[in-house]
Write a structure and sequence with these properties.
Strand content: 15-25%
Low-confidence stretches: 1-33, 152-171
Order of helices and strands: HEHEHEEHHEHEHH
Largest sheet: 6 strands, mixed
Oligomer: single chain
Number of domains: 1
CATH architecture: 3-Layer(aba) Sandwich
Structural class: alpha/beta
CATH topology: Aminopeptidase
Strand order of the largest sheet: 2-1-3-6-4-5
CATH superfamily: Zn-dependent exopeptidases
CATH class: Alpha Beta
Radius of gyration: 21 Å
Bound molecules: zinc ion
């Protein structure tokens, strides 16, 4: 639930049109009357992304406590503990880590998106813990972004329409942009889903192997519109490492052993993913 709230917030956030870039200073010169023809606008060069760099995002933080467990434990502390452990494990495997919040601090979703966009990382992993109305719900869920969801499609349409009104582009240009955009989004969504399945499989297998399949419930890989990261072209996943509203699961979630085992399994999946695509030199 919390994860979906975050995803929804990111959707809203990503639905905002980009801020106008800072205008370049105009030099006051006596330019000749016959100015050079205006060059065709060129698309921005793609940011170079490095697969061996991963953004690790600990959900919530600061005054945003996240879900509160049955014993009073706060989601923000669980996510930070696992994110830190994951960062250590990834570093040990030669993978560079960018943490959106290495400490207990409030970091706005917009700032997390900025950090990710600027990082040049090739993967984004957000760590969360779940909560439900019923105390019976338990298990692990992994989300990947997918713009095929109805809400995403609606917001895409809203945004495209708004930009078109503001910019006043020609219809055919808009169609081409939209087509390229959809193609890119489709590729990233596929990559995200593939990565989510790999990550989820590793996490569930490892934790079931240690705690028992009857205790660790596989709640599967799911999709949600993770727009802000679609635009940054980074395969993105959000892992719900368990339910804080379920007493036995919350007890496990509070232990360093669980944090460590979860981090190991996540790091193994990342390392395998990276090595398959970009073998170490
Ligand atoms: Zn959360």
């Amino acid at each position: 639930m919390r994860g979906l709230a975050i995803l929804t917030a990111l959707v809203v956030l990503a639905g905002c049109p980009p801020a106008d870039p800072e205008p370049a200073p105009v030099e006051e010169t006596s330019a000749p009357a016959t100015a050079a023809p205006t060059p065709e606008p060129t698309p921005p060069a793609p940011l170079v992304r490095t697969l061996r760099r991963v953004v690790v995002d600990a959900g919530h933080g600061g005054e945003d406590l996240g879900a509160i467990g049955v014993s009073g434990v706060q989601e923000k502390d669980i996510t930070l503990a696992i994110a830190r452990a994951l960062a250590r494990e990834l570093a040990g495997r030669g993978i560079e880590v960018v943490q959106t919040r290495p400490e207990d601090a409030a970091v706005a979703l917009a700032r997390r998106a900025e950090i990710t966009n600027a990082s040049g990382a090739g993967l984004f992993i957000s760590i969360h813990a779940n909560s439900a109305e019923t105390d019976r719900a338990h298990g692990i869920e992994t989300y990947s972004m997918d713009v095929a969801a109805d809400e995403a499609a609606m917001r895409l349409a809203e945004r495209e329409n708004r930009e078109a009104e503001v910019v006043g582009r020609q219809a055919n240009e808009r169609d081409l942009d939209a087509t390229l955009h959809e193609l890119r989004q489709g590729v990233i969504a596929e990559e995200s889903a593939r990565f989510a399945r790999a990550l989820h499989g590793s996490l569930v297998d490892s934790l079931q192997g240690f705690y028992g399949a009857d205790r660790i419930s596989d709640r599967f890989h799911r999709t949600a519109p993770f727009w802000v990261l679609v635009d940054s072209e980074v395969p993105a996943v959000l892992v719900e490492v368990g339910y804080l509203s379920n007493a036995p699961e919350e007890r496990r979630l509070r232990t360093g052993g669980y944090h460590h085992r979860a981090a190991l399994a996540l790091a193994d999946a990342v390392a395998t993913w990276v090595d398959e695509r970009e073998p170490a030199e």
